[in-house]
From TrEMBL:
It is found in: Membrane. Residues 161-213 form the HAMP domain. Keywords: Kinase, Membrane, Phosphoprotein, Transferase, Transmembrane, Transmembrane helix. The chain crosses the membrane at residues 6-27, 141-163. The keyword Transferase applies. One of its GO terms (cellular component) is membrane. This is histidine kinase. It comes from Desulfobacter hydrogenophilus. It is an enzyme of class 2 (transferase). One of its GO terms (molecular function) is protein histidine kinase activity. It catalyses: ATP + protein L-histidine = ADP + protein N-phospho-L-histidine.
Amino acid sequence: MGLRTRIIIFVVVAFCAVNLFLCFYITHQVKVLELKKLRVQINKSTYLMRIINTLPLYNVDRESLKMNMETFFDDENMKRLTIHDSEVNININLERQLPLGGTDIKKSFVIDYKGLKLGRLTVVYSTGLIEKKLAKFQTRMLEVTLFVILVIAVVLAFSINIITKPLGRLARITSEIAAGNFDNEIEQTDVGEVGTLSRNFVRMRDTVKEKKEEISRINTMLEGDIQQKNMQGRKILYQRMLISSVNTFFQQSMTAQSIQEIAEIFIPIAQGVVPGPYCFVGQVCDTENNLKILALSDQVEKQCPMFDEAVINHGFRQPISGRLVEAIANKAPVISNNVSLNSEFYFLSKEHLPVETIMALPMLYGKDVFGLAVFAGKEGGYTPEDQEVATMMIMVLVEALTLRGRQEEKQQLEKTMVQSEKMVSVGKLAAGMVNEMNGPLDEIRRAAQMIRNSVEKPGPESLAAADKNSLSFDRLGRYLQDQSVFNNLNLIMEACKKASGIVSNMLSFSGNTKVDFVVEDLSLLLDESLELASSEYSLEQDFHFDAIQIMKDYDPDLPKVKCRGSELKQVFFNILSNGAYAMAGHTDSPCPTFFMRTYGKEGQVCVEIIDNGPGMPENIRRRVFEPFFSTRSDKEDAGLGLSVSYFIITENYNGTIEVESAPGEGTCFRIFLPI
């Protein structure tokens, strides 16, 4: 707010305050005088009315009384006039309507004559008319006051503008000089103090301008020296940080148990030397347009709930396009410091991450692209120096991942060889035991059935033998029923049936099946296995299968495979039944769920069956495919379901079956079959 404005406001406010005070003060004084005059008038009127009405009231002259009262009632301030004498029945009352808001003044006294009380006279005056006149008077005074204030404000503004115009011009020029603008000319035509002030400003401006130019030349020289030293210091610092980060990463990666864990170790260490809050590492899979996410930075997991740990552990695949695919194809880094102009980064949209800058580097191992590392969110954009440091860190990461991959391949190969030897041994054992066990089991079941039929449905020979020994079949049946003999026979036959099932499972190891391979739809086989599991009586006894939520992600373009449908349904059923039993006792999950997925990968089809049950510790996970290994406490499970499934997939189809599980994280069975 300028000086002129402050002066005008101050003067106008002060003048308004004085005038308003005077207006209200004068109005108040006028009101006091008017009320004083009214009270004097009331006293005079009541005195005269008392004298004039005494004789007519004494003589009971109603006409005179009424005439006298009407004469006095001509006073416009009088609201009511009453004469009342109950002894002679005189009651005269005159009243008029006056403006609202006034104050009533009442006078009441007894009229007497020579000591005789004649009647009571009551007079009521109102100040309504006086206050109405005073309100009009006050309004006129306010109008006049406001008009005078307006005229004074206009005159004052015009006068002050003429006086302060040179000072305002000097103030603007002073502000521009303070902002560094020394090119404006200052008029020196003013006279008096303003002219002297203008000339002094000119001399001051010229002096400051010379000093500023001299300081600018010195600063330019110093900035060059400082910039060179800073560049050298940054290079030394980057080298030290890079060496320290590489050493730290190598030490920690040596204890990692998987490539995902190595990637998780890499991200925070890399973010220490490559700025940016967002980072993820992905492995090229299926085609060059998809990445299997290995690890994410903490900020990505916090701001994108879709990327939770369970999703990452189950092999989440992120589709990519545009220049990121080009980075993989051309094996060259990509830097974009304005993501909004690049539609290929749609999968990192602002709805999930506030990304403005991004740097993507291919993970090269020789001539092959292993994966892609992406850094994002650096303020100010990524530089070639950032790319150089990130490239060196990526080289270290690829070396660690490759080393770990070789170790995993070696371990997997050893496990496969051990498991194959076990399966071959069990297959030989099964081939030798099948014929030996099936015969006695059939004899036991047949004998139990004959005992039951001989009592429930007796033939002629049985009836003749009963007559010979004076035996009643009805009493014998009731006796056997009371002694639970029939129930025990049923248990014998059921046990024989289960034993035959175990023998049939063992027979699967021998590979002697005669069913030919046909083309089957894996999605249809999975659905039929679900129906079979949902209607399985043994499952319904412990856990109602309908309570399990089923989620499906079937690839509609998945090619069909040559197989024996019954065998694959047996594999799927074994996995589903084991998962159902596991989730039945898992109270931490309010909604037990199977997630079933199919997709293609490098000439193979993959089937994943995932549950959100309690998971398995490492010592159990390693043994799930071993024959006769079971964790159930009911002692009825022979422990052959998953081992038979392993044999069917690996021996009959040259495929692979693997399991991923950890306590509290559910279990994932993954089956790969060649197309």
